[in-house]
Design a protein that fits this description.
By secondary structure, the chain is α/β, with parallel strands linked by helices. The protein has helices spanning 16-28, 46-50, 60-64, 98-106, 125-132, 145-160, 175-179, 186-193, 219-229, 243-255; strands spanning 3-8, 34-38, 75-76, 83-86, 114-118, 136-141, 165-173, 196-202. The protein has an eight-stranded mixed beta sheet with strand order 3-4-2-5-1-6-7-8, with helices on both faces. Strand 6 (136-141), helix 6 (145-160) and strand 7 form a beta-alpha-beta unit. Bound molecules: adenosine-5'-triphosphate (ATP) and magnesium ion.
Length: 256
């Protein structure tokens, strides 16, 4: 039976879809069976993040409205054979209830180890539908006060929804700014939000999943390890910007 996690964050653009896609890839690289489901009906872009938009025939709404079976709406990843995406291409004719969405997801739960639900921004009906289909959660937050305030409210709602776990991921960490005291450190963000600290992702030049991140142990691999094995390793976004060479790197980064 799959672990079902909703990837949420309250605020728009914190990196929910990016984390969902890259975490899915990292888990599948461990030979785990992973399903990514796009719950951002109408403003979907998980298919684009995964580079499968040209392969989409059916989607989540087609399954919910009975035009096809769940398995027919799954698109297999080109690189990781155990990774599948259920996209969401169009708007539903009538609002899809939490119960109906839950049935769509539940029917697939036996075939996977992980189901990651890409939640839409905000805390309205789309959020409630996504949260209602999961029993664990990942809150993606950027290290800015406005974002942390929204994430804090989201965390409280997830607690109220009875989640088994609420895991925090700090995304888009600029190590140069943290080292210079101009950005909150991941540990400050974790202590402000409380709950389980799942990982840190730096600001990356290329988070495009189609190109896949190189390197044996990229930050998403660490995230996947922490989620799957319960480890507590954090990707070090800062130390390369400390000391004499670090201050040079900071200056160079500023000038690009
Ligand atoms: N760690 C990162 N480094 C650099 N760019 C990033 C990072 N994470 C996300 N981005 C970029 O930020 C933008 C928003 O990311 P994404 O679409 O994943 O956010 P989202 O929370 O899903 O947005 P929405 O609320 O609209 O669904 C994208 O252009 C993405 O490439
Ligand atoms: Mg998104």
């Amino acid at each position: 039976m799959a672990r079902r996690l909703v990837v949420t964050g309250g605020k728009g653009g914190t990196g929910k879809t990016t984390i969902c896609a890259n975490l899915g890839i990292a888990l599948a690289k461990k030979n785990l069976r992973v399903l990514l489901v796009d719950f951002d009906l109408g403003l979907n872009n998980l298919d684009v993040a995964m580079g499968i938009e040209h392969k989409v025939v059916y989607d989540f709404v087609d399954v919910a409205e009975g035009r096809c079976r769940g398995a027919q709406a799954l698109v297999q990843d080109a690189f990781e054979p155990t990774l599948f995406t259920m996209p969401s291409g169009h708007l539903a004719k009538r609002p899809i209830s939490v119960d109906l969405a839950n049935r769509v997801v539940s029917r697939l739960a036996d075939s996977f180890d992980y189901i990651l639900i890409d939640c839409p921004a905000g805390v309205d009906s789309g959020f409630r539908r996504a949260v209602g289909c999961a029993n664990e959660s990942i809150v993606v937050v950027t290290p800015h006060l406005a974002g942390i305030r929204d994430a804090d409210k989201t965390v409280a709602m997830l607690d109220n929804a009875g989640m088994l776990s609420v895991n925090v991921v700090v995304n888009r960490v600029r190590g140069d700014l943290v080292a210079g005291g101009e950005m909150l450190s991941i540990f400050e963000v974790f202590s402000l939000l409380g709950h389980n600290s799942l990982g840190a992702i730096p600001e990356l030049d290329d988070v495009n999943c189609c190109k896949r991140l190189k390197g044996k142990h990229n930050p998403f691999d660490i995230l996947a390890d922490n989620l799957h094995n319960g480890t507590k390793e954090m990707f070090d976004c800062v130390s390369q910007y400390n000391g004499l060479f670090g201050s040079l790197r900071r200056k160079l980064k500023r000038n690009v």
